[in-house]
Write a structure and sequence with these properties.
The protein is mostly helical. The protein has one domain. The protein is built from 3 helices and no strands. Helix 1 (2-10) packs across helix 3. The two termini are 25 Å apart.
Length: 50
């Protein structure tokens, strides 16, 4: 999860966001670390209980 947070922090700059987009543009699925982060966000959200 620390790696996912590092990716998020890196992409807060314009250059970081451009590099992130360039690295993932050809992928058919999200990078696994981002998928894990989204699962963690969902698991800790109140929306899952509804």
């Amino acid at each position: 999860m620390a790696q996912a947070r590092a990716y998020d922090d890196f992409s807060t700059t314009q250059l970081g966001d451009m590099l992130k987009q360039a690295q993932t543009a050809q992928l058919s699925h999200p990078v696994p670390v981002w998928r894990a982060r989204e699962i963690e966000r969902w698991a800790s959200s109140k929306d899952k209980d509804e």
